[in-house]
Amino acid sequence: MRVVAGKYKKTNLKTLEGDEITRPTKDMVREALFSSITVHNETLFLDLFAGSGAIGIEALSRGAKDVVFNDHNKEAVKIIRENLDKLKEERRIMDLEYADCLKQLKDAGFDFIYVDPPYAFQEYGEVFELVREYNVLDKKGIMIVEVRKDTQLPEYPGYSCFKERRYGICKLLYYRKEEKQ
């Protein structure tokens, strides 16, 4: 796997073996994702289920001000650290369950939160609720969820899904906070 664009373009990244624990997001999906959002030198980005860190590293490569990486798998955290060391990037890497991570990031105001848990994950509603409860997403921020293409997520109170894109076996769902009337 390698970085698709930006200052680290074509840099090879380490990934975990197999796809049972982590499932690296394909180059095509990363390219489509970052073509659909604007990352600049003020962007704050959270890679909540970071795996190898490829999504967050892509955000850094494209100029994000800061990226926080989280994964509860010790091997994944080690790989993220190795990938960031290779790039000489010192960033916050958290090794927490998603609920504890979101609690620690209370009032962080991220512009983007990328949610790409293992496909067997079912607690999306809790992720949305905790992001709202702890005010982790900026009021104009976007939460992007990667799921299997056949996964149907319900509506979540306080959020609206404004875009859905399919790529091979996965799809990306884009959510914004609903404006209060």
Describe the structure in your own words.
- The protein is an alpha/beta fold.
- It has a single domain (27-177), classed as Vaccinia Virus protein VP39 (Rossmann fold), CATH 3.40.50.
- The protein contains 5 helices and 7 strands.
- A 7-stranded mixed β-sheet has the order 3-2-1-4-5-7-6, sandwiched between helices.
- The longest helix has 14 residues, at 74-87.
Radius of gyration: 15 Å
User: How many E-type strands?
Assistant: 7
Query: Which blocks of ≥5 consecutive residues have pLDDT under 50?
Result: none
What would the average pLDDT be, to the nearest integer? 93
Q: What's the quaternary structure here?
A: single chain
What's the N-to-C terminus distance? 45 Å
What order do the SSEs take from the amino end to the carboxyl end, as H and E? HEHEHEHEHEEE
Strand % is: 25-35%
**Any idea what the CATH superfamily is called?**
Vaccinia Virus protein VP39
Let me know the largest β-sheet: 7 strands, mixed
Number of DSSP helices? Answer: 5
**Can you give the helix content as a percent range?**
25-40%
Could you give a quick summary of the protein structure above?
With 181 residues, the chain is of the alpha/beta class.
Feature tags:
181 residues, alpha/beta, Rossmann fold, 5 helices, globular
Strand and helix layout:
Layout: H1 27-36, E1 44-47, H2 54-61, E2 66-70, H3 74-87, E3 93-94, H4 98-104, E4 110-115, H5 124-133, E5 137-148, E6 159-167, E7 170-177
Parallel strand pairs: 1-2, 1-4, 2-3, 4-5
Antiparallel strand pairs: 5-7, 6-7
Helix pairs in contact: 4-5
